[in-house]
Amino acid sequence: xxxxxxxxxxxxxxxxxxxxxxxxxxxxxxxxxxxxxxxxxxxxxxxxxxxxxxxxxxxxxxxxxxxxxxxxxxxxxxxxxxxxxxxxxxxxxxxxxxxxxxxxxxxxxxxxxxxxxxxxxxxxxxxxxxxxxxxxxxxxxxxxxxxxxxxxxxxxxxxxxxxxxxxxxxxxxxxxxxxxxxxxxxxxxxxxxxxxxxxxxxxxxxxxxxxxxxxxxxxxxxxxxxxxxxxxxxxxxxxxxxxxxxxxxxxxxxxxxxxxxxxxxxxxxxxxxxxxxxxxxxxxxxxxxxxxxxxx
Length: 296
Fold this sequence. Notes:
By secondary structure, the chain is mainly α. It has twelve helices and two strands, in the order H-H-E-E-H-H-H-H-H-H-H-H-H-H.
């Protein structure tokens, strides 16, 4: 009787968990379908090629322009700048915590770093306005520091907890036999870290980086507050920019319902969705390559 009860419970939970998994897929598919449906309504009025290659975003002008290029470039340079800062800092900090820090220091650092993720993005944006922005303006002799560099610095801070936590777990999970074998042939601790531990932890580190990229691309409030929101083609990190997420957040609350401008924001969201999907797929591709390399 007990065996039959356990078997019945196994079947119930099997289908319950299968249902939750399918529900997640259905929600994701529903979001994508909604984005594509509303984007299709936009492309009835604006040619897709004009949207993707247009150099001006001015949907409220006398002659509305729906060019995505300034928004894509703005999002890309802010994210790229954030990753240039966050990746070496994140991986370096993760390596220090895992391999060099004493247990007491490790127990202090890990919770402190993870607490950074709990700071609301609006607070990070406010600190960017009152602290980082004036510093950038003074150093670069600018009228204000609300630019791509400001947004990149703030996004790097926001991405660091994710990168550090996951990368540290990946480095810590490397088998001790790898280190012992390296020490046995005369390698120093630094050589072991660079040539053995980090390559062995590469799949987890890449996953950490890709999650950090996703965090940076999808952030809204911080870049809305700190980057100046100028929808023009940026020529460098000291120019004011307007990211795709900030554009949606600023304009969605004021745009008339079911107008071309309204549907254009859904088109932006679709492009953002595709960019995030491509980043995740690239991360998965490289993770699988490293796994096959280590398996061989």
